[in-house]
Design brief:
Layout lengths: L9 E2 L3 E4 L8 H14 L15 E10 L2 E9 L6 H18 L12 H14 L6 E10 L1 H13 L4 H16 L8 H7 L6 E5 L4 E5 L21 E4 L3 E9 L8 E9 L5 H20 L14 H9 L13 H8 L5 E5 L2 E4 H17 L7 E5 L4 H12 L3 E5 L5 H11 L3 E4 L6 H10 L3 E3 L20 E6 L9 E5 H14 L7 E4 L7 H12 L2 E4 L2 H4 L2 H10 L4 E4 L1 H14 L10 E5 L5 H10 L4 E6 L8 E5 L11 E2 L4 E5 L12 E7 L29 E11 L5 E6 L3 E4 L2 E4 H9 L4 E10 L6 E10 L11 H12 L6 E5 L14 H10 L1
Parallel strand pairs: 1-3, 2-3, 7-9, 11-20, 13-14, 13-15, 15-16, 19-20, 21-22, 22-23, 33-34
Antiparallel strand pairs: 3-4, 5-8, 5-10, 6-7, 9-10, 11-12, 17-18, 23-24, 24-25, 26-27, 27-28, 28-29, 30-31, 32-33
């Protein structure tokens, strides 16, 4: 029986099946099979994970033999141990009345005040759990001697036996989160020596403790046999639920019992890891009973601090295996076999031709007086020459900055002012307002890779070391002046090598070069494809930003890999579903999502339209290139995890005191890596790079970066992104996440996309309002399917009594985005001010 915090009972009609005509050798086995199937089916009024209001009863009946009837009842709702025997008694009396003429069952008495309060207490503990997750169940039955010892220690500590088991569960989960400290079983038992019957929520540990030990197991009542059914598959309100079905020390005529089951979320645990955790709980409980005053961190199963950090906060530092040469040398090595490297406008450029073009760029740079260490900006249209220019700048030892042609505005001027590049590499002699400004302001030089000129002599290749700066990426500038972030050849080589290998970008792969050059993932997808030996398909600009054009382009070129942001992937999904393009995308095997939180509904749509597609979620700031990756292997009801650390990165989730947060507790994401940037270009600001003192051992490799992002560790060690620290605001004293508002509003059927911009007092900085920009879905005539009153009511339904002082702005088209593909809030703010 599962529990749910609701109030009024509802019931589905009785469903009857007559199987008496079938030959049955084992009636009990047939009954067990039927009950197992009925126990795992969803209620008829559920949609996804939404739960109907009130406790919900389902009734099945089957005649499995001429004289054998099977009645199955399940209730999803909050019923305590007083209600379970009452339900059994009522059913038994009703059966006896119909079959044997016994008195009809007495009316169920009104619930007492105490019963109502107890039921509400059970419901209140789980009311904040808004999601339900698919899970599995692992039964356990431990030795009778362990049950005796639990009862003995409970008596010594003036506690209940279930209080002892709950304290051991807390100890184990706190240890897994690195937060048990010097806590002992006795100290943990002091928190809750007598837990109430029913379900006890442990929100900080993403777990529930369920005491079902008072539930009846009736052998025979008025001709009926009644017993609980434990399904193999369950629905959970948390990552873990420990259910205790029996816990007593036994007596003269009874054997001691300690049994139950561990229910676990299958998206977080497999059967092996769940069994390992359950075995660890038994081992820890056994040891703690002998030494209740010993710190649980020192009790078996021993988990040394180093192993703890490795499993839950980090991965071992990564030493590149295989290619450690700079990217241009790897491309030059592939020129020998001369496979297809770049496809553009129907023409294919092989690795040999690409390497020759890159060498020509290097000679032109040398002739222009560019030396190793100089900054060089590549501002060229899409095509193989832009890729060759990238390789040529890197091979020359210069510091690359990629910029797309077209209007650059104040951001382009800021980039050139910060870099003071030795030259700007272009293709052709066209009008360019930014270059005119650059020449007038700084006397800057321009190198045209297509200009007719005597071929400059080949110069000795400069010695490029792994520690030299390879490129400088600039932040999007949506929150202020863009900052330059330098990265080394070692960082670029390591990450592109991992990316190309992990996601099979080698020979035969057709990788779309979709990301704009201003955003550093563009370098990653180019470098990973060329290092692995795949083929790069450059997306034309007019196609790149238009999902109606990009979907047929992906099908025409049989693209196998695409990297994009989730909001644009949702646009692509809409086109695929509307046009029925799924079968034509049979080559499309890898979708890499980055830059934004992944909405669960996107995954469901992709699974339906493109069932063979593998979807990956990548997370990480430019300061560390990237940090985590996660393959989505099933549908999820809650946030999609960002996964585990990419090799070469260690991740921690820290509280305000720089201590590791327990599993399930939100804290600040901090990364340690040898690939952390050396700092911001032209800035002495070291605050984001402040080390974690207690882990910063002398001589330890790698720097630290405090991302400003919030996350929490899930029980299996994966990371869940929880928004930005600077996206937290206070409204009327309540802390609110802007991303939570956006996610809630985006779940409304009429909302295509949305963004929230806080409105603050200019002097105090206190937030007094919210500008909510919404792009509505529209009908065939172009009319919006929703409006502000509906959206406001939808938010009120989620946030309850918290008043959100929101002003809604209906956006006529898509929301503005920066070079990284993220919503440009500065442009939204400016548009609101100008209105």
């Amino acid at each position: 029986m599962s529990t749910r915090p609701d109030d009024a009972m509802t019931a589905e009609p009785l469903r009857f099946t007559d199987l008496s005509a079938l030959p049955v050798d084992d009636v009990d086995a047939l009954a067990a099979a039927l009950c197992g199937r009925w126990a795992t089916e969803a209620p008829a009024d559920r949609s996804g994970t939404a739960v109907a209001a009130g406790p919900h009863a389902r009734l099945h009946a089957a005649r499995i033999a001429p004289a054998d009837l099977l009645l199955f009842v399940t209730v999803d709702g909050a019923l305590d141990e007083e209600h379970v025997p009452r339900l059994v008694d009522t059913l038994s009396a009703a059966y006896a009345h119909e079959r044997h003429g016994a008195p009809a069952p007495a009316p169920v008495p009104e619930a007492t005040v105490q019963e109502t309060a107890a039921r509400e207490a059970v419901a209140r503990t789980l009311r904040t759990r808004t999601h339900r997750y698919e899970g599995a169940s692992l039964p356990f039955e431990w030795s009778g001697e362990l049950a005796r010892r639990v009862a003995r220690v409970a008596a010594e500590q003036s506690a209940s036996p279930t209080g002892v088991v709950l304290a051991a569960l807390r100890a184990l989960l706190l240890r897994h989160g690195g937060h048990a400290g010097d806590g002992t079983l006795r100290a943990l038992l002091g928190f809750e020596p007598h837990p109430l019957r029913g379900d006890r929520d442990l929100p900080q540990l993403d777990a529930v403790f369920a005491d079902r030990s008072a539930a009846p197991v009736v052998d025979r009542v008025a001709g009926l046999r009644a017993s609980p059914v434990v399904p193999d598959r369950v629905v959970l309100p948390a990552g873990l639920v420990l259910v205790v079905d029996a816990l007593d020390a036994g007596g003269d005529d009874e054997a001691p019992r300690l049994s139950g089951r561990l229910e676990y979320r299958t998206a977080l645990y497999d059967a092996g890891s769940a069994a390992h955790l359950l075995d660890g709980l038994r081992t820890l409980l056994t040891a703690a009973l002998d030494a209740p005053d010993t710190p649980v961190n020192t009790l078996p199963p021993l988990l040394p601090a180093a192993a703890l950090i490795e499993r839950y906060a980090a991965l071992p530092m990564f030493r590149p295996v295989g290619h450690t040469d700079p990217l241009p040398l790897q491309v030059a090595a592939r020129a020998v076999t001369d496979g297809p490297a770049v496809v553009w406008d129907g023409r294919t450029t092989g690795y040999a031709a690409l390497d020759a073009a890159a060498r020509d760029v290097t000679r032109r740079l040398a002739a222009a007086g560019v030396t190793a260490g100089d900054a060089v900006v590549v501002r060229m249209p899409p095509g193989p020459l832009r890729i060759a220019a990238l390789l040529g700048v890197l091979a020359h030892g210069a510091r690359l900055c990629w910029l797309a042609p077209g209007p650059a505005g104040e951001r382009g001027r800021s980039v050139l002012t910060a870099l003071r590049p030795a030259c700007v590499v272009v293709e052709g002699d066209g009008d360019d307002e930014l270059l005119d400004w650059y020449h007038a302001e700084f006397g800057g030089r321009v190198v045209d890779v297509t200009a007719d000129a005597a071929a400059p002599p080949a110069a000795p290749a400069p010695a490029v070391t792994p520690g030299d700066t390879a490129y400088i990426a600039f932040t999007s500038g949506s929150t202020g002046r863009p900052k330059g972030i330098p990265q080394t050849h070692a960082a670029l080589t390591q990450f592109t090598g991992w990316l190309g290998t992990r996601f099979a970008m080698g020979p035969g792969a057709r990788v779309a070069q979709w990301v704009s050059p201003e955003h550093d993932p563009a370098l990653a997808e180019v470098g990973a494809t060329l290092a692995a030996g795949g083929t790069l398909y450059v997306v034309p600009d007019e196609v790149r930003v238009n999902p109606d054009l990009l979907v047929p382009w992906l099908a025409e070129h049989r693209i196998t890999h695409l990297q994009t942001v989730p909001s644009f992937a949702r646009d692509l999904l809409d086109v695929i579903a509307r046009t029925g393009a799924g079968p034509r995308l049979d080559a499309f095997g890898h979708l890499l999502l980055m830059g934004e939180a992944v909405p669960p509904e996107l995954l469901g749509g992709l699974a339906e339209e493109l069932p063979a597609l593998r979807v990956f979620n990548l997370y990480g700031p430019t300061e560390v290139v990237a940090a985590t990756w996660h393959e989505v292997t099933g549908l999820t009801e809650g946030p999609v995890p960002v996964g585990r650390a990419i090799p070469g990165r260690q991740l921690l989730v820290l509280d305000e005191n720089d201590l590791t947060c327990p599993v399930g507790v939100t804290g600040s994401i901090v990364v340690r890596s040898p690939y952390v940037t050396s700092g911001y270009l032209g800035s002495a600001d070291r605050a984001p790079f402040r080390p974690v003192e207690w882990l910063d051992a002398p001589g330890a490799e790698g720097g630290w970066y405090r991302t400003g992002d919030l996350g929490r560790r899930l029980p299996d060690g994966t990371l869940e992104y929880r928004g930005r620290e600077d996206f937290q605001i206070k409204l009327a004293g309540n802390r609110v996440e802007l991303t939570e508002i956006e996610g809630t509003l985006a779940s409304h059927a009429s909302v295509l996309e949305c963004a929230v911009v806080p409105v603050a007092e200019p002097v105090s900085g206190l937030v007094h309002g919210l500008d909510v920009h919404v792009v509505p879905r529209r009908d065939a005539d172009g009319r919006p399917l929703g409006a502000a009153p509906e959206w406001r009511a939808h938010l009120r339904g989620h946030f309850g009594p918290l008043t959100l002082p929101a002003t809604f702005h209906e956006a006529p088209g898509r929301l503005p985005r920066n070079a990284a593909g993220k919503v440009d809030r500065s442009r939204l703010r400016a548009a609101t001010a100008a209105a």
